[in-house]
Design goal:
Blueprint: E1 2-9, E2 18-21, E3 27-31, H1 38-50, H2 58-63, E4 72-79, E5 82-89, E6 95-100, E7 103-107, H3 108-122, E8 131-132, H4 144-162, H5 172-188, H6 200-242, H7 245-375, H8 380-392, H9 398-420, E9 424-427, E10 437-439, E11 442-443, E12 448-451, E13 456-460, E14 464-468, H10 478-492, H11 498-525, H12 531-539, H13 554-612, H14 618-644, H15 649-689, H16 692-733, H17 735-738, H18 740-753, E15 758-761, E16 768-773, E17 776-779, H19 785-805, E18 812-815, H20 823-836, E19 842-846, E20 858-859, E21 862-864
Parallel strand pairs: 3-19, 3-20, 8-18, 18-19
Antiparallel strand pairs: 1-2, 1-4, 2-21, 4-5, 5-6, 6-7, 9-12, 10-11, 10-13, 13-14, 15-16, 16-17
Length: 875
């Protein structure tokens, strides 16, 4: 079979009909870019030959366009019988037709049967090994069904071309014999050698096992009958002993005596229990009086001790309060001294900065005079750049501004912490003076707590006004430190406020932008450049606006600043010492206050506890206690005498339990023996009527026959397994002769790529197992992707040549079968294709247009097709 023309309609992207015509006998090449329909054309041919027109499988649904429509495929094929036109349509109005020279020769199911015979005879599809779908280049690619079909075609082909000489060692007869042997073996056993479910071997095993189980069960029944007879005899003897009248009378007499003894013991025990409760009551009354006496004494002692402790705590609190007041006065004095020394230090630093500025101003004046003389003749553009550069060198930088912002935030945080930890003023009025203290005209209520964060004025009726002024930021000095750090930073930058610093920083940034623009223009107008002179002038600080004539000498200013700094350190040390003393005094005062409060609480609790105790004199309490002791002694004596005369309750109870148990056990045993005798009588009667001994003998005979059948069948399975092994060994021994035709056909193709290379074949899959090069065997599955696809294509060409020699020529269709091959080997693969195309038809579909230009052959292209009707089947 050879393809002459292919046409498709409503097949994926082909919503309009197209055709591929002009296919020659040899090599045909369709080279087109991706998504031009090459693989769609290939899938259409697959569907035409192997998918019935009446069904709607998922493969056909995948071929349908997105816009809908009925997929159609037409192919013109040439065989020894002439030129035939095959056509199919699926989904909507499905049809299948076969025409010969324009005349309809088959349609519907007849057409399907005609196409199936053509495909099977010529092996023109996946089962024939010759049509390679895109992405499936290996010989064993595709579904399991396709792989198994391809293996059977390879086996049939090799057996056919080997010839009748090798009929029993590598040809069709040995294949048939091995297949029949395996079929017989499969009837008995699975592939692992185990009995097949539903097979005769398994049935024989099941029958033997069933009879063996029945024989064992019947043997157990016979043994059970003998056991039942013995058990019935023993039960009758035991029942006679238990029902004897004298034995029954003895059991009843023992039970009556034990019941009377136990009742007497219980009555005496109740009397002992009553006396015991009386003794316990007397003991509880005696213990209660003792507890009351002890609690009264302890409460009086606790009240006296708590009173003494409260007086001592009050005295200690007065002492610690006075020490705290003295420490506060000392800390206030140290704080005022530190404020004065800081003010003096600030003034000294200002004078030092003035002296330093005057010194720098003199140096700057000399430098500016020299640079001004050198640059006096520059163009206006350079003067503009100089002015911009001078402005850009003054004022705080962006980093300086960030530092100021951070210091200001730290100052605000310190002030917030100062407010949280500020001192508080507590107001308490004397009786009759409520509301005499006012703040901002509003009377303050009693027990008012005022935080002293800022200056607070209070008016006192009839006395005057009091002003409270906080003495600084707090005890840790964080507000002063933060304020001093911010003031120092502003002073170093020669600005008064942070707002002024922001304005100067903004001005500096604007000046820097102007300087950049002017410098760029100046470089364009003065390529030889005076950048060094301009940078030196811009680096000089702007002249000071204030008069430096009053500035002191630099040495004098340095000395004054050092003395003020030492004074400040001394004042800070004194303040820290005062703060430590004040902290210690406050802690002592807090502890004294807590101790005083605890002592007062203890005294209150002691007095309350003493008041809750019912008052009673010691004499009355002693008299009641003596009476309670006498009553307890009398109750304990009576209880002891009753216990001594009491019978043993546990012994009488145990004797009664034993008598009751013996009586119940006898009744239960008699009842059980009666039931056992009835059951044993029935079982003996039933087994005796069933002739179990005769049935046991029959089962033994059946089991012997079943085991003989199983042994015979087991031997037959072993013989079949031995035969299959021998046939397989014979086929393996003849493998070289079996693969000789395909090896001879493949050898010249292998020489094109690998001189002196050979292939080692697998007996089961009939595919190459090893590539032998330079005497080394390389497994095919570890070769590179390019080598595997080249080897697979050469093997397909060899099988195609064998099919042609066997009279079953079929076209070879390759859809992008060389995707991993390098440039050097692809040239030799082209030579192999041309070598095989001499007496067979090869169709190559590829998207590698540039690489396949050197392949040659008949160049094909897809062309639009005009239809006389609406369908390919109307042509």
């Amino acid at each position: 079979m050879k393809l002459r023309r292919v046409a498709v309609h409503n097949l994926r992207r082909f919503t309009s009909p197209v055709e591929l015509s002009g296919l020659s006998d040899g090599l045909n090449v369709l080279a087109a870019p991706n998504e031009q329909g090459k693989s769609t054309l290939f899938d259409g041919l697959q569907a035409l030959f192997f998918t019935a027109h009446g069904g709607r499988p998922k493969e056909i649904k995948a071929l349908q366009p997105h816009a809908g429509g009925a997929p159609e495929v037409l192919a013109e094929v040439e065989t020894d019988g002439g030129l035939f036109t095959l056509a199919k349509r699926w989904i909507s109005k499905p049809r299948a037709t076969v025409h010969r020279d324009g005349r309809l020769i088959a349609q519907a199911d007849e057409a399907e049967a005609w196409i199936a015979r053509l495909a099977a005879t010529d092996a023109g599809g996946p089962a024939g090994l010759l049509w390679v779908r895109q992405g499936l280049t290996a010989l064993d690619d595709g579904s399991k069904r396709e792989s198994e079909a391809a293996r059977e075609v390879r086996r049939d082909l090799l057996s056919s071309v080997t010839g009748e000489v090798e009929a029993m060692t590598g040809g069709q007869r040995m294949d048939a014999a091995l297949k029949r042997c395996r079929a017989e073996l499969d009837n008995y056993a699975t592939a692992t050698g185990r009995p097949r479910t539903g097979g005769p071997w398994k049935a024989a095993q099941d029958r033997a096992e069933g009879l063996r189980a029945q024989h064992e069960e019947m043997a157990q029944t016979v043994a059970a009958l003998q056991d039942d007879l013995s058990a019935r005899k023993r039960a009758r003897a035991e029942l006679a002993e238990l029902t004897d009248p004298e034995a029954a009378e003895r059991r009843k007499s023992r039970l009556t005596e034990a019941t009377a003894a136990f009742a007497a013991a219980e009555r005496h025990a109740a009397q002992v229990d009553t006396l015991t409760r009386a003794a316990d009551t007397a003991r509880l009354r005696r213990d209660g009086l003792l507890t009351r006496k002890r609690a009264q004494a302890e409460a009086r002692a606790e009240q006296a001790e708590a009173s003494t402790q409260a007086q001592a705590a009050r005295a200690a609190r007065a002492t610690t309060d006075k020490a705290q007041t003295d420490a506060q006065d000392l800390a206030q004095a140290a704080r005022e001294t530190l404020t004065a020394t800081r003010a003096a230090l600030a003034e000294a630093e200002q004078r030092l900065h003035a002296a330093q500025r005057a010194e720098r101003a003199q140096d700057t004046a000399r430098q500016r005079a020299e640079l001004t003389d050198r640059l006096s003749k520059a163009e206006a553009l350079r003067e503009t750049a100089d002015a911009a550069r001078a402005a850009a060198a003054t004022g705080p930088t962006a980093d300086d501004l960030k530092t100021l912002e951070r210091m200001a935030a730290a100052l605000e945080q310190a002030r917030a912490l100062q407010a949280a930890s500020a001192a508080r003023l507590e107001l308490r009025y004397a009786p009759g003076h409520q509301g005499h203290i006012r703040r901002d005209g509003t009377a303050l209520p009693d027990a008012t707590s005022l935080p002293l964060i800022a200056t607070t004025d209070l008016e006192i009726d009839g006395i005057g006004q009091i002003r409270f002024t906080p003495g600084g930021k707090g005890e840790d000095g964080s507000v002063d430190a933060a304020s001093e750090a911010l003031t120092g930073a502003l002073r170093r930058l020669a600005v008064d406020t942070i707002e002024t610093a922001r304005a100067q920083a903004d001005a500096r940034a604007q000046a820097e932008r102007r300087l950049s623009e002017a410098t760029s223009a100046l470089k364009a107008h003065a390529p030889k450049g005076l950048d060094a002179l301009h940078d030196a002038l811009a680096a000089l600080p702007a002249p000071l606006a204030d008069d430096a004539g009053d500035a002191p000498a630099l040495d004098e200013a340095n000395a004054t600043r050092a003395k003020c700094g030492a004074d400040r350190i001394t004042a800070e040390t004194a303040l820290e010492t005062a703060r430590d003393r004040l902290d210690a005094a406050r802690q002592e005062a807090a502890r004294a206050q807590a101790a005083a409060q605890a002592a007062e609480d203890r005294l209150t609790r002691a007095e309350a506890a003493l008041s809750r105790i019912e008052p009673i004199s010691d004499a009355a309490l002693t008299a009641e206690l003596a009476q309670a002791e006498t009553a307890l002694t009398e109750a304990e004596t009576a209880c002891t005498q009753a216990k001594a005369a009491a019978p043993d309750l546990e012994n009488t109870k145990a004797a009664l339990a034993r008598a009751q148990s013996a009586d119940r056990a006898a009744d239960d045993t008699i009842s059980r023996l009666n039931m056992d005798l009835a059951r044993l009588d029935e079982r003996v009667r039933r087994n005796a009527d069933g002739a179990v001994e005769e049935r046991l003998e029959e089962l033994l005979q059946d089991l012997t026959a079943a085991e003989a059948d199983l042994a015979r069948m087991t031997r037959e399975v072993a013989v079949l397994q031995r035969l299959a092994t021998a046939l397989e060994a014979a086929r393996i021994a003849a493998r070289d002769r079996y693969f000789t035709p395909v090896a001879n056909t493949l050898r010249p193709l292998l020489q094109l790529l690998w001189p002196e290379a050979q292939l080692d074949w697998d007996d089961s899959d009939l595919l190459p197992r090893h590539l032998i090069r330079d005497g080394r065997e390389e497994p095919v599955d570890i070769l590179s992707g390019g080598t595997q696809e080249q080897l697979a294509l050469l093997v397909r060409l060899a099988f195609a040549r064998l099919l042609a020699q066997d009279g079953r020529a079929a076209p070879v269709i390759l859809d992008d079968a060389l995707v991993y091959t390098d440039d050097d080997r692809i040239e030799r693969m082209f030579d192999a294709l041309h070598r095989q195309a001499g007496d067979m038809q090869i169709i190559v579909l590829t998207c590698r247009q540039r690489a396949f230009r050197e392949l040659g052959g008949q160049q094909l292209s897809l062309q639009p097709l005009r239809l006389p009707g609406d369908s390919l089947l109307d042509m």
